[in-house]
Amino acid sequence: MNTGIPLDTSTLHDQHGHWPQAESVEDFRHNIAAVQSRIAAACERVGRDPASVRLLPVSKTKPESILRLAYTAGCRHFGENKPQEAYGKWEAMADLGDLHWSVIGHLQTNKAKLVARFAAEFQALDSLRVAEALERRLQDEGRSLDVFVQVNTSMEDSKYGLPPTEVAAFLRALPAFSALRVRGLMTLAMFSADAAQVRQCFVRLRELRDRLRQDAPAGIGLDELSMGMSGDYEIAIEEGATVVRVGQAIFGARATPDALYWPAAGAGAGEQG
Description:
Blueprint lengths: L24 H21 L8 E4 L6 H9 L4 E4 L2 H10 L7 E4 L8 H7 L2 E5 L2 H14 L3 E7 L15 H7 L6 E8 L7 H19 L10 E3 L6 H6 L4 E4 L1 H4 L6 H4 L12
Parallel strand pairs: 1-8, 2-3, 3-4, 4-5, 5-6, 6-7
Helix pairs in contact: 3-4, 4-5
């Protein structure tokens, strides 16, 4: 998506853990407008339409009362990492009929029944066991689910997601699961102040998607790229992101350690939002 013009956009990772708390509807309106302005500027730098980027506010760890403020400020989609936490919020906020919930964190098969019941979207599909569990539960519920295949573009042992070399075979297996609507790919970039390293993760996902598109199975959609969080979503947009998952820049820093919400796949650190 980069037009070939040299881009020197920095990360905002130095703000991680320091974003001010949003405690009022006005705070949320201000933060959302600031993020949308940065989205528009990033799109302008590479000749994209800002409407081609969906902002997914990530509400993990935040209580229902805070989510209701965000709702009043205009949020209609929330991203959550832990299915049980998300399910509880979904139940508590059932009076808001136009809310949509996206589960963006690693899923254990025994939690598939929760996701199948309430989620509109699951962005971290990286195993056939999880696909099978979701398919079974979705069939029971009479529902379907938009899904993104998670790819480990940073090659870090601490991250979930398929190695890029395994994604093509994985996609070929997915048409067997009729309740899963594959929309695209998702990745988590390296958490680094080195913008070039971060950018490379996003370039890898876009280039992988472009290659896979040529012979993707029928019914497998690869239009969407979910990549970029509070510290790096501008770089992600410059490289083709269609969904950015922004938590702290909208809600404020979290008191809960990242590792609790982004459990490491290996021995490394958790993820940021």
